[in-house]
Amino acid sequence: MTECRQDIVTNTSKQAPTEREEYSFAAIEKRWAGYWENNKTFKAADDDTRPRRYVLDMFPYPSGDLHMGHAEAFAMGDVVSRYWMLRGYDVLHPIGWDSFGLPAENAAIARDAHPAEWTYNNIATQRSSFERYAISVDWDTVLHTSDPEYYKWTQWLFLKFYERGLTYRKKSQVNWCPKDQTVLANEQVVDGACERCGTEVTKKALEQWYFKITDYAERLLEDMDALEGHWPERVLNMQRNWIGKSTGATVTFAIEDGPEIEVYTTRPDTLYGATFMVVAADADLAEQLVTDDQAKDLAAYREELKHVSDIDRQSADRPKTGVYLGRYGINPLSGERVPVWASDYVLADYGTGAIMAVPAHDQRDMDFARAMDLPVRMVVDTGEDNPEDTGIATTDPGTNVNSGNLNGLSGQEAIDKAIDLLAAKGTGEKSVNYRLRDWLLSRQRFWGTPIPIIHCADCGLVPVPADQLPVQLPTDLHGQQLAPKGKSPLEAAEDWVNVECPTCGGAAKRDTDTMDTFVDSSWYYMRFTDSNNDEEIWDRDRLDRWAPVDQYVGGVEHAILHLLYSRFFTKALYDMGLVSFTEPFARLLNQGQVLNGGKAMSKSLGNGVDLGVQLDAFGVDAIRLTMVFASPPEDDIDWADVAPAASLKFLARAWRLAQDVQYSDSAPGADPSTGSLNLRQTTHKVVHEAESLLDDQKFNVVIARTMELVNATRKEIDNGAGAADPAVREATEVVAQLLSLVAPYTAEDMWAMLGHEPSVSRSSWLEVDESLLVEDKITVIAQVQGKLRDRFEAPADISDDELEALARDSQNVQRAIGDQQIRKVIVVKGKLVNFVVG
RNA sequence: GCCUCCGUAGCCCAAUCGGUAGAGGCAAGCGACUUAAAAUCGCUGUGUUAUGGGUUCGAGUCCCAUCGGAGGCACCA
Fold first, then answer.
1. At A386, is the secondary structure helix, strand, or coil?
2. Bases along strand B below 7 A from a protein CB
3. Is residue A477 classed as helix, strand or coil in its secondary structure?
4. CA A718 / C1′ B33 distance in Å
5. Distance of CA A397 to CAs A88, A264, A380, A383, A612, Å?
6. Is the complex ipTM more than 0.90?
7. How many Å apart are CA A596 and CA A639, to the nearest integer?
8. CA angle, corner A709, sides to A42 and A718, nearest 5?
9. Window 357-386 of chain A: CB closer than 7 A to strand B
10. Which of A183, A362, A378, A643, by CA, is between 20 and 30 Å from A754?
11. Whole-angstrom Cα distance, residue A116 to residue A134?
């Protein structure tokens, strides 16, 4: 931490180079190192004197030192934070670490150590790099999710959720990573593989802890409407896909000599085409339904399925398999008897785990029907070839046929009518389904928040009383004791596991699983408003003053996982009356990735670019500038395409402006209105544009405008009014302010050279003089039939009539019109005249 | 298969409301300074705005289709 920075001289007073020198990023970095931290320049005041803003970067995982990806993300967040500070807001810009997680455990196993050691060493390294990188954070807010002072409250929240029935245990077929030896949430399985290590995920029947996020599916979906325009379209789309809402009907089928079963369908209009039923082979339902005669077949089929991997199982073109259960169901509308089958193409945990199969209008059912030689009946005529003949299911809307009372209806009409008929008989109703599953939160690993539950043989699940929180991780486990064994390493800590039941005082055991680290990060943004509170989770007033986050910045890889979980937590806490808002992040910016040669940097490809090496070669400011200028923030940056050397050149060019002013007769506070009008117009135009560009997150364009201003100022110094001109000072001050958003060292140095007290971050933003934005002369274009024919200069306040007259006088225009008749003249004020002829 | 976004100069990218296609940078070329070079300064931008239609006085911008790229969901009934 700070002790790593002894080499750096700390400064607390105004300073500037005392004689003319060359731009040296190393010298400038040295001059300002430690300044902002020592002076708490970026500490949130929380004093109600100014409007507030809360800027948050997704907190880092302490995997080692900072890398290029951190450098980009934090450069973007800093632009926003520093800009708002310059605009006079009281900005909360906190920093902390997401410090629980597997890599620490693996490192501990490898070096026979405790995960805390590796974790906190890495945090110290990253902190030191952040300081060098000069991000504008309030260092008093630091928190680590692995600190007992933090996870105490994670456990407290877990119990709040438990009280409300939002946390529960359930046994089911869960995703299991054989390499990490732990269960995984649905969101952590990507293409059938573990999101973290890439190992193919298998299924295991286990009893695990869940959060009931499905209770919030509809609100998570609905509330996205309010985020429209403030979150990237892509992220909203991804979350909508993930929630996967569908509307249809649940339909009850009676079973001959058996229990009735419900099915879910989005196409109740095709009910008359249901020629068989299928239940999920791995569901209990299959076992309940199967007749004694068929029981053997079902058992054999289930055994077979155990050997099919998840990846194979999910591929749609795999031949359909299944087994007849020996039963018949009764179609509630037609009264028809239909056989009941079991297959793995029906999922146990979606809908009711059973379907009515309509082979004519669903390709999966068609494939099954063909494989098992089951009947196919067309009930919707779409005008396409009859699926009974082609084997190709038709799914478009059409006119119902062979459908009793539904005949002649089509599309939504038929669906509504079918539901009405079912409802009248009490055998079905309209219903909604979501693809979203409950969040599996328990993990069989050590380095995470312990689940604060005690298992008592007599009392069952007993929450750890609030006054006994936190349930701390044992500190005496290390090395191999932490190795994955398929059950939690905590089980080995016998002293820790065996406790008295808080209810009956009898012998009991602690829950030995730990929480998914996404639980930790679901609420950290709230804790940041009151990080050091050891009395309560947060002071409600403080939280309400700052939250929700005004601007959140982070990678799109969390589009579903973290962002969805955090939204869920916020809504659940709102319902518990613990917070007064329902969405955590008002605005979201997804910065792109930093690539190299078109590919993501990785060790295996050997194309990594080391951030430290870049910083040493070009300086912090040039690297930050390169990150921001390269492309729009959300686009990827290919490091092979950018030129940090050019950024460095530009910074030197800007810095020299300040030096020229410093060594001229210019004095701070000179009245700029006595200076070059031309340069002043440019300066005010640039500031004016920068304001809207920054609001629109077009940071790369802001840099381009700053470059223009630097060019114009250089020209004024060399071939115009000279360095002592007050307009040159004004322009250079604006350059320093704009640069302070991305190049804090250079900007601070310029500000000092211009004779101001630090910090430039605390200076006041130039108030745009509207009169300087008005141009006195404008270029007007003349068109004939929308084609450009001439352009000419005119006074800015020219009237439409005069403008038209001027255009008529143009020889080019007259030539283009020739002897054609002018039918219409369109005049756009101060811009163009268009003659419509013919 | 379904859903989103994107396609502008050799490259990265600009272009409020539909109104002059080019702001900034890279690369390239030329010039000034220099014994020379580096650094610095200056000058140099003609392109099917992916393609084809449509709307409009006027389309990079709006609509439709196609092609290409990126991403998400997917045996979800």
1. coil
2. 3-5, 11-16, 19-21, 23-27, 39-42, 57-59, 71-77
3. coil
4. 15
5. 58, 19, 7, 10, 60
6. yes
7. 5
8. 125
9. 358, 362, 364, 367
10. A643
11. 26
Q: Beta-strand (E) ranges in A597-703?
A: 599-600, 637-638
Q: For residues A447 and A442, give the distance between their C-alpha atoms in angstroms, rounded to a whole number.
A: 12
Q: What's the N-to-C CA distance of chain A in angstroms?
A: 78
Q: What would the pLDDT profile of A94-134 be if each residue is shown by its tens digit?
A: 999 999 999 999 899 999 999 999 999 999 999 999 999 99
| A229: Cα within 13 Å, side-chain hemisphere | 3
Buried-exposed string A676-704: b where 16+ CB fall within 10 A, e elsewhere? beebbbbbbbbbbbbbebbeebbbbbbbe
Nucleotide nearest to A267 (CA to C1'): B77
**Measured between alpha carbons, how far is residue A162 from residues A156, A168, A519, A707 in Å?**
10, 7, 14, 56
Tell me which residue has tokens 């009850």.
Answer: A252
Asked if residues A210 and A166 have their Cβ atoms less than 8 Å apart, the reply is no
- pTM, 2 dp: 0.94
Q: Tokens 């005690």 map to which residue? A: A454
pLDDT in tens, A454-476: 999 999 999 999 999 999 999 88
Alpha-carbon distance of A72 to A68, in angstroms, equals 6
Give a three-class secondary structure readout of A202-251: EEEEEEEEEECHHHHHHHHHHHHHHHECCECHHHHHHHHHHHCCEEEEEE
